[in-house]
Specification:
Elements: H1 2-23, H2 33-62, H3 83-98
Helix pairs in contact: 1-2
Length: about 100
Amino acid sequence: MANLLIRLGLLTAALAVLGLIFVNTEMAQGHEGLPVHILLAGAVIFGGGVALSILSKASNVRLWGARCPKCGHSVKRGHIYCEDHFQQAIDQARERLRTR
């Protein structure tokens, strides 16, 4: 969701910049304020995406404790996987080293 907001904000800002360029032509007289408002909206959307990204990364760190990425069970401090998936990851790594 955060990545979507960031991309949408950047796209909106880019279109607003193109609008600012187009406003300087004679065909778009009288609409000088619209691209500025669109640019501000793009900046707000982008800022919301960045804030949401920071908040989601911060909340995954330690607010609810660490969880195994494969099964979702809680894991010990400093560990990535639960006991079962940790052993499975070690076995997969050893298999990859053997096949080199």
